[in-house]
Design a protein that fits this description.
InterPro entries: Cro/C1-type_HTH, DUF5753, Lambda_DNA-bd_dom_sf
GO molecular function, one term: DNA binding
CATH topology of the largest domain: Endonuclease, Chain A
Strand content: 5-15%
Distance between the termini: 68 Å
Number of helices: 13
Strand order of the largest sheet: 3-2-1-4-5-6
Pfam family, one: DUF5753
Shape: elongated
Helix content: 40-55%
Radius of gyration: 21 Å
Keywords: DNA-binding
Protein name: Putative DNA-binding protein
Largest sheet: 6 strands, mixed
Oligomer: single chain
Number of domains: 2
Length: 283
């Protein structure tokens, strides 16, 4: 049997609390499986939390506190972590920021918006104003900074392999000015030309297709099972049940089949950028 890897609690906040969780669980003489019994989470999920690879959802923190009799320790720490990150990322998205840093491959479908790591500041601000119209300028600046920090996903040569399907309406229904939209689409083209991600456009007249109900990400890892993430305006959900993830993976394959090929998709983005730049888009 391979030696168990020690956890460096100084590496990150999740690693610190993961190490504490393992210590308290083992001190109580409980296995991973015993600890998650009665919750909606699996032993592998808890193991990843102990190793600092996932953040602990507050529902699981409450379950662990009750099971291990830790007097609300993990619920309080979980709340502290969420408060610390709230200025930059939505609470429900904190898990995804951690996971995408470990992902080997990311496949994304977005029916309404350009993916966050590809957004430039004018686009980011428009999205924030639409969903959080009363946000302070300080909070908006922090969110813009946090989103631009994630640009490495598509721009860093060491980032995960990414495949993105976008609906054509994203190109045809701008949420910012024409000059800004031209710059935004030119940025997408520049990143794509460095072969950092593969784009496909789903035409507006493609008819019925999978994933007509919202944004979806599929992530695979070298050292953990794949997951699926779906997001609404104010919430997000991680799905890691193998059979259900498999269904979503198959559906994403059908979505890619319905979309235009990558080269044709890039040409469509290029034409849209030129039209915005010349003031002729929609004419």
């Amino acid at each position: 049997m391979a030696a168990r890897k020690d956890i460096d609690g100084s590496a990150s906040v999740p690693a610190f609390y993961g190490k504490e969780l393992r210590w308290k669980r083992e001190a109580a003489g409980r296995t991973l499986q015993e600890t998650v019994e009665g919750s909606y989470f699996g032993a592998s999920y808890l193991s990843e939390i102990e190793r600092g690879q996932r953040r602990m959802p507050i529902e699981l923190a409450r379950h662990v506190d009750h099971f291990l009799k830790t007097d609300g320790f993990f619920e309080r720490r979980c709340a502290d972590v969420h408060k610390a990150r709230r200025s930059k990322h939505a609470e429900y998205f904190a898990h995804i920021v951690d996971l995408e840093a470990r992902a080997k491959e990311i496949e994304e479908w977005n029916p309404t918006l350009i993916p966050g790591p590809l957004q430039l500041e004018p686009y980011i601000r428009a999205v924030i104003h639409a969903s959080l119209p009363h946000d302070s300028e300080e909070s908006i600046k922090a969110k813009v900074e946090a989103r631009r920090e994630r640009a490495w996903l598509f721009e860093d040569a060491k980032g995960p392999e990414c495949w993105i399907v976008l609906h054509e309406s994203i190109l045809r229904q701008p949420i910012i000015g024409e000059d800004e939209m031209a710059e935004q689409l030119a940025h997408i083209l520049a990143v794509a030309e460095r072969r950092r991600f593969i784009p496909q456009i789903l035409p507006w007249n493609a008819g019925a297709h999978p994933f007509m109900m919202g944004t979806t990400w599929l992530m695979t890892f070298t050292d953990a099972p794949p997951i699926m993430y779906t997001e609404g305006m104010y919430s997000g959900q991680i799905i890691d049940e193998p059979e259900l993830v498999g269904q979503y993976t198959s559906a994403y394959g059908r979505l890619k089949a319905a979309a235009m090929p990558p080269k044709e998709s890039l040409r469509m983005i290029e034409r849209a950028a030129e039209e915005y730049g010349s003031g002729k888009c929609g004419r």
